[in-house]
TrEMBL record, chains A, B:
Keywords: DNA-binding, Transcription, Transcription regulation. This is LacI family transcriptional regulator. GO terms for molecular function: DNA-binding transcription factor activity; transcription cis-regulatory region binding. Signal peptide: none annotated.
């Protein structure tokens, strides 16, 4: 029997040590039910004792299924992540099963039971806020899980893929400062989400390095959707001293601010400069095209898919916490303030 | 043995007639491989002879997989259809496997081989233009297929779910005529697609019933994407006699026309009225909000999913050609022409 610190032990060696056939060990490794309980226990003990790890891609000989789970499918945002996941999964011969759990336990439970019934080789949760009991059930299934754009800080053993939200908030604010703006408002995302807090802190840091103080009147909390951008934009424009620039923490909220500006009889960027966040396709289609912070959503999806496929093949994630770089895309919605 | 014209024959009766066990007949019905060839042939002959049809939902006792196949995942359009499909599939305990075949045979072939390897209970093809050989391979798999928004007229035995594109083109044009417009341009979709031809014919019919003649100078062919709307919109505005209104055959092209109008120093709707087609979420987010023809994409996806699940359960589609109604949504991008 080999030393685990040297090369890794093989199924043949485990079978010999357990006094069973190689196919029996293989059945235990693959979690199949047709092995007597006593035999299974003996084999599992040996596998643990010798630190057995399945060879890479041992599980990908059959066509796999990756589960991609969103809260809702109501945003162009979802399709960008899906595009990256599907691309990697398709090439690897795996299917991408898309589900929406609508932030309800019932729907999440239904998804979990569907997953249990049909099997699945890996799960990608997007902006997850699964209930703790459901998270525990998912863990029991022993399916590899990766979280994209984590809502909070997940348990240490779940790899996450995010974007550099703080750096993005900083870059958006610095861009507006450099154009000469001093009254810069923030239409932020829900404070409960990690990404919103990081964007807010990047905004604050951008103001501070320019020697500007954060004016609480200019900081509003939206929900990432267009309607809240419109409402909060209108509130900001109605202030006695309105801002000359607005950083909206999502492209959809930025479009809401566009409409508030238009309804006030003002123009973007002549009267108000606007910066968004995400760089969805619709940012380039806005009129004028939107200056925004690019979040590489398709790349985040692709990396999550590669990570979960590697985990399904028995590898461990290289780095459990990855943030891909955001970058400022300057288009036509920003200009110096009126003199 | 019962008469097929009376009640339908049961598996028990088939088993008795074939001289085999009920589980054996069940294995044949469910297409499993562990039945001797001679037995399988005898049982299949009896099933055919007596017109056996599995009871509804006989196959849905295991969790199913619905394949949803797009050409590309590069449009907010895809996510609307996906939302409808996922909703129905999720509730039925089935997973929705999303694939993009990028209009290449290689990618479509890879998808087919993935499907063969993992199995699937039904396929929804969106705006399908699969190669004839691939269509034939798909038919060999004997998986139920439904086409959403057919690119052309598919073989008579494949059910389709579309929208009333002709009526939508008519409604858009009539709305502009009623506002007083006489020079109404069309930025159409690719002529090769059935839906584009129907929208063009609806536009023509709307002009004709107002006693207006179609001016070929005012009819342009785009590709449904924003860039073509921008380019063709700019061409139209540069005409010696520019149109006062534009009907764009997709919301994305309509946004391109917005940008062409803005760059000409003009305003929507003061100088140019614009009507789109689709009613994607971004239509309501445009500034000004876009008047458009609503295509019920989520409902189309939901109906396709219900149809394919029913077919998987052994039912036949009620109606092989369904067109769901479009409707005009009047927002703020249309107004009477300047006097």
């Amino acid at each position: 029997m080999s030393d685990v610190r040297g090369r890794s032990v093989t199924i043949t060696e485990i079978a010999r040590a357990a006094g069973v056939s190689v196919p029996t060990v293989s059945r235990v490794v693959n979690g199949r039910g047709d092995v007597a309980a006593a035999t299974r226990e003996r084999v599992e003990a040996l596998l643990r004792e010798h630190g057995y790890r399945p060879p890479p891609r041992a599980r990908s000989t059959r066509a796999g299924l990756l589960d991609l789970v969103f809260n809702d499918l109501d945003s162009p945002w979802a399709v960008e992540i899906l595009r990256g996941v599907e691309d990697v999964a398709h090439a690897a011969g795996a299917g991408t099963v898309v589900s929406a759990v609508h932030r309800t336990s019932d729907s999440a439970r239904q998804w979990l039971s569907n997953l249990q019934a049909r099997g699945g080789d890996g799960v990608i949760l997007v902006t997850s806020d699964l209930d703790p009991p459901l998270t525990e059930e998912l863990r029991q299934l022993a399916v590899p899980v990766v979280v994209v754009d984590p809502a909070g800080v997940p348990p240490y053993d779940v790899p996450t893929v995010g974007a550099t939200n703080w750096a993005g908030g900083l870059a958006a604010t610095e861009h507006l400062v450099e154009l000469g703006h001093r009254r810069i408002a923030l239409v932020g995302g829900p404070r409960g989400l990690l990404c919103s807090r990081a964007r807010l802190d990047g905004y604050r840091a951008g103001l501070e390095s320019a020697g500007l103080e954060l004016d609480p009147d200019l900081v509003r909390e939206g929900d990432f959707y267009q309607e809240s951008g419109y409402r909060l934009g209108a509130e900001l424009l109605a202030l006695p001293q309105p801002p000359t620039a607005v950083f909206a923490a999502s492209d959809q909220m930025a479009l809401g601010v566009y409409e508030a500006v238009r309804r006030s009889g003002l123009r973007v960027p002549d009267d108000v400069s606007i910066v968004g966040f995400d760089d969805l396709a619709l940012a380039a289609w806005a009129s004028p095209p939107l200056t925004t912070v690019r979040q590489p959503l398709a790349e985040m999806g692709a990396l999550a898919a590669r990570t979960v496929l590697a985990m399904a093949a028995g590898e461990t994630a290289d780095n459990p916490r990855v943030e891909l770089a955001t970058s400022l895309v300057v288009r036509e919605s920003t200009a110096p303030p009126r003199a």
